[in-house]
Write a structure and sequence with these properties.
With about 500 residues, this protein is α+β, with helices and mostly antiparallel strands. The protein is about 15% helix and about 30% strand. The protein folds into two domains: about 160 residues, TATA-Binding Protein; about 240 residues, no CATH class. It comes from Brevibacillus ruminantium.
């Protein structure tokens, strides 16, 4: 069995280097075991009692599971203890299920019918089959959910309390043309709270005129550069959710993310590193960045006439990026390896590491910047991402997300970086003509806002009870007109 080669696929997009070196790309080099810790195979009698009951329900709903062998492991997925059950028939994969070890909730189920089926059942058959399954799985609690049909054919059960959606409390069922349920996935908050008393009545939510006074602190005036122009915008620097009673921002992801840019002064070193061939690339990678290729060499994708290119190690785990022979970034699997899988450095220490590295390669005239630090997420539980954008006329200039640096939160090593600080627009909108921040806040609330129940995170831990929240569309506001950007504006 041959492994899929990544670099031919990447070559098509690597000319934009930042795509490869974005925080999302950082997941390629993550040690996936940081979020998923597998244990040895278990026996059925080792399942928790709640998980056993759920597995027995699956067998009743899918009698064909009786004739299968099972492989059971207890794993940690997204910080949750999960039983992963693989069903096999005649030594071939037949079905799989993920069950929460503590609550017994079914998280996912998939049945491989072995027969391609590209037809969707009609609504009557789909709803009937899905309802039969749901009643067998959760019984009377089925009545807590409203049912709809997705355009792709799935049947969706969504929880509503007081007429308000409970975000993440849902089931999505796939039904084939014969009316058989072939797949189930549950939301991250499914069946978390059953008691209606845990849900704050909507009458306690603040009115919209009160809400408008909470929005200005959540906006930031800045420049944003697109393909053909630079705009002056009020950017919504929050998650899109605020507490409906207090107006405070709510964090909806375990990875603490800040959208607000903070000013910082750096000391540019003016160092320029050039590479012209594979041998020089290896030398620079090891001597300049301190990353060993362990005796191997770099290969190259460089073609005639290409402005941006990259070198890669034979195992495709180490990358060095150039533009016009000047190094503009790298990506290192070796530096990304965790020791214990969890970050131990503070945000201040991480910022110091990023600053120390980046300012060496800054041009002499580049001194004033804005930055933000995103904390480790579930994909890379040990990696911070620090992003820098230039300060122009005292405001942050966001050019395609700025320049990013990945920092290993355990070792302090730089896991990846991309340098995109040299694109300065020739003409800027006049910031003196910007509408007031209060006007921008009212514009943000001009579009419909929704009350929702959500389970926000505090210090990386999800709250046990739901919070009544306003969901707000967080598109940018044109700071010169006080209006939302139209599609025509975005295409300029």
């Amino acid at each position: 069995m041959t492994t899929q080669r990544r670099y031919p696929v990447l070559a098509g997009i690597v000319l934009t280097a930042a795509l490869l070196l974005s925080p999302a790309m950082g997941t390629v080099m993550a040690n996936q075991a940081g979020n998923q810790q597998a244990a040895a195979n278990l026996q059925e009698n080792q399942l928790s009692e709640k998980a056993k009951r759920t597995e027995q329900k699956l067998q009743m709903l899918f009698p064909a599971l009786d004739d299968t062998s099972r492989q059971i492991t207890l794993e940690t997925k997204d910080h949750l203890p999960v039983y992963e059950i693989r069903y096999e028939k005649n030594n071939e994969f037949f079905a799989s299920a993920n069950i929460h070890a503590e609550t017994g909730n079914l998280l996912t189920f998939y049945w491989d019918s072995k027969v391609p089926d590209f037809k969707n059942p009609d609504d009557k058959l789909a709803y009937k089959s899905a309802d039969t399954f749901m009643e067998g799985l959760i019984g009377e609690m089925r009545s807590l959910y409203k049912v709809t049909r997705a355009p792709v054919g799935d049947v969706i059960y969504s929880r509503y309390v007081n007429g308000i959606e409970v975000v993440g409390d849902e089931f999505r069922l796939s039904v084939n043309s014969a009316g058989q349920v072939t797949g189930v996935s549950a939301g991250e908050n499914t069946l978390t709270n059953i008691d209606p008393a845990d849900f704050l009545p909507p009458a306690q939510a603040m009115k919209k005129d009160q809400l408008s006074r909470c929005i200005p602190p959540l906006l930031q005036l800045m420049y944003k550069t697109g393909e053909n122009q630079t705009d002056l915008v009020y950017s919504a620097v929050f998650s899109g959710y605020v507490d409906a009673v207090t107006g405070a921002e709510l964090i909806t992801n375990r990875q603490y993310r800040t959208w607000r840019w903070k000013p910082i002064s750096l000391t540019p070193g003016g160092k320029v590193v050039k590479v012209k061939n594979e041998q020089e690339a290896k030398q620079i990678y090891e001597s300049e960045f301190g990353i060993s290729l362990k005796g191997s060499t770099f290969n190259s994708n460089i073609g005639k006439g290409q402005m941006e290119s990259f070198y890669f190690s034979p195992d495709e785990k180490e990358f060095l990026f150039m533009k016009d022979d000047v190094v503009i970034g790298f990506q290192s699997y070796a530096n990304g390896q965790p020791q214990k899988g969890k970050a131990t450095l503070s945000e201040k220490q991480v910022l110091e590491k990023a600053v120390q590295f980046l300012q060496t390669y800054l041009k002499r005239e580049e001194k004033e910047f804005y930055y933000r630090v995103n904390h480790p997420g579930t994909q890379n539980p040990h990696e911070y991402v620090v992003t820098f954008v230039p300060s122009v006329e005292g405001l942050p200039l966001d050019y395609r997300g700025g320049s990013g640096i990945g920092v290993n939160g355990e070792t302090g090593k730089i896991t990846w970086y991309n340098q995109r600080l040299d694109q300065k627009p020739a003409k800027l909108p006049d910031k003196r003509k910007a509408v007031s921040i209060d006007t921008a806040a009212k514009a943000l609330l001009a579009k419909p806002t929704e009350l929702r129940y959500i389970y926000p995170f505090v210090n990386g831990e999800r709250l046990a009870k739901p919070v009544l929240a306003y969901y707000i569309d967080v598109n940018d506001i044109n700071a010169l007109t006080g209006n939302f950007f139209s599609m025509k504006d975005m295409e300029k």
